[in-house]
Amino acid sequence: LHDDLVMEFPFGADVGLPPRVEGKTICSGLFQAVVHKLGLRFAGIQVYGMADPNLVLAEYRGHGAFNGKPYEQRYITLLRFTDGRLILYREYVDSKIVENVIGHLSALSG
């Protein structure tokens, strides 16, 4: 991971995701916290190269649960690399699924 890593969540504001998170420590902490709280496991990972060799598009599914409710999500993530290290992680998810299972992401802090 690049020290200047940025995570962006273009459709996450309605469920409590900040539109942009900056810094390797903060970004990795956020990712790890969400994965841990939901017990997320990822599957069906497909990676697509782009015209720009520093960009990759990934499509995958996440499976987990929150308070006994199953969490099944599809993700599309744009990844940008600089000097071989991830510098941009832009995640697109169905925020209605987040809302239906978790509500507002502040519920994960409890």
Brief descriptors of the model:
single chain; 110 residues; alpha+beta; 6-stranded mixed β-sheet; 6 strands; globular
Explain what the structure shows.
The protein is α+β, with helices and mostly antiparallel strands and 110 residues long. The protein contains two helices and six strands; from the N terminus they run ββαββββα. The protein has helices at 24-38, 95-101; strands spanning 6-8, 20-22, 41-49, 55-66, 69-82, 85-93. Strands 2-1-6-5-4-3 form a six-stranded mixed sheet. A hairpin with a 2-residue loop joins β5 (69-82) and β6. The longest helix is centred in the N-terminal third of the chain and has 15 residues, at 24-38. The model has no long low-confidence stretch (mean pLDDT 93).
Series of H and E elements: EEHEEEEH
- Summarize model confidence as the mean pLDDT: 93
Radius of gyration over C-alpha positions, nearest whole angstrom: 14 Å
SS-derived structural category? alpha+beta
Strand order of the biggest β-sheet = 2-1-6-5-4-3
Q: How many β-strand stretches?
A: 6
Shape: globular
Span between termini: 28 Å
Proportion of residues in extended strands: over 45%
Summarize the structure.
With 110 residues, the chain is α+β, with helices and mostly antiparallel strands. It contains 2 helices and 6 strands; from the N terminus they run E-E-H-E-E-E-E-H.
